Amino acid sequence: MWISLPCGTPDALSRTERQHWERELSRAEHQSRQARETGNDPHLAAALLTRGAALNRLGRSREALDALLESVAYLGHDPYTQACAWREAACAHLNLANDAEAQEYLALALRLARDASHLTLQLDLLDDLAALHAALGDVHAACDTLRASLHLRRQHAQPGLTRTLVRLTLTELDLPPPERPTEALTGRTRELAALAPHDPLGGESWAALAHAHLHLDDPQAALHAAAQAEPLLRASGQTRAALKVMADHARAHLRLGQPDQARHLLEAALRDPAAPTHPQEHAALHLAASELYEQLGEYARALRHHHQYHQLDRDERRAHQRERTRAAQARVALDVTRHETRLHRQRNDELEALVQARTQELRRSQRAVIDLLASAAEFRDAPLGPHTRWVGDATTAVALHLGCAPAHAEELGLAARLHDVGKIGIPDAILLKAGPLTPQERETIASHTRLGSQLLTQPGAADGGPLLRLAAQIALSHHECWDGSGYPQALRGTDIPLGGRIVRVVDTFDALVSARPYKPAWTDAEALSHLRQHAGTLFDPACVQALGDLHARGGLPARDGA
Length: 562
Fold this sequence. Notes:
This protein is an all-alpha fold. The chain has helices at about 15-40, 40-55, 60-75, 80-95, 100-115, 120-135, 140-155, 160-175, 180-195, 205-215, 220-235, 240-255, 260-270, 280-295, 300-345, 350-380, 385-400, 405-415, 430, 440-445, 450-455, 465-475, 500-510, 525-535, 540-550. Helices cover about 70% and strands about 0% of the residues. α2 runs antiparallel to α3 (about 60-75) and α14 packs antiparallel against α15 (about 300-345). The two termini are about 40 Å apart. The relative contact order is 0.05. This is HD-GYP domain-containing protein.
């Protein structure tokens, strides 16, 4: 995947650049401590933003994300500065392999850049979003975004034209062959060939040419471009890109009937000490080696390389899933920590009114965490947005009907919005699958209850007050059944927390009356009949009765599109 975000990796920094960013980090940490002591929020925001940028470039992106998300809370209303902060935070997520979160942050940054009327930043963010579209498998969206960026750069004579041209060429090559614009690709390849010898991108342009020529069935031109690209990429510290182009270099030799040269090249690349530190490129080299030895008839060696390719690919996918969950956990703990810091400033202030005001602020922050995490889950599954909001509102209505105090009913409804937050940790290939699930995939989906509870009870999050603890309880119990046949703990009857029992009913009702790729929408009457039929087995009879009463008198919240 090509990257245009302001990311930096330690092996791409010169000694002078590393020393510069280490000094920036030290200065920012000193300034942030001073700002916290004096309560100067604007200075704290600027220091945290600098600290996050330095940490990103020093390869400490998890720490960078903490600093950047905290800086946003203290920034003023300058849309350009906010856009830069969110773009830097997207970079941290990308370095942590959290592609979906990076896309969410980039979309926000683009809206802010448009508010600021800053054309250069808008164009860079369009390229960034295209990269994330490609990473998430939406190649058509990536192509459309890059074409728009390329058009605007030409129209307004903006810098970065060649880089966008490189990325559009590579992305169009990822389209299925029937949809690949061969004529346009041929024209762009000619344009790149003319630019590459004089272009400051150097190795990137030659690497794109090598890849394009292979797809356009011109291995001789691909061989020449790859030979130009590799030394330029290594000289500029782009080790990953250099390893990647070596796979294309070997394939060009193979297509030209030069298997010995391909073998020598791949063996050298696989011996490179940097290869194991870059799993994606390492896997690509093993795949190319498998193709080579299969063509040579050395099937045992081909099979060994193919196994290595699949193992590296599997390990990388697991790492992506773990990092996605950890980043979401960090969001929860961060907001609590930030507000605890503000409260500590007032520890010696004995005025009850001020203490109450700060307590209310903490409660508002908890609600902000609920909204943030609910939005993160909604972003991964578009229909989930109106669903989680309706489930929350309906939970409040049912709780009030059952006699809960208004304040508790409101907390139940807010916490209910996070009933499916554990789906953040479910791979997209399973969560967004349109067809039927395998038993193993259903088991993975079912794990979202425990994942959600774990996410909301991490150190720091568990100290955030009863609202997050209530949300964790609902996330864990909303698939339990009245007769004990549910999961994950097979709880029965009133052993199931009230919030879980209510959400079990309202969640099922909304799912039944909503259209999904695998089923049409049921009518309200059909859904209510189903709930009543299974009251006392799957569902708490009192919750089913309450929902039916509210529906009969128009007391349920309105549903989008209803």
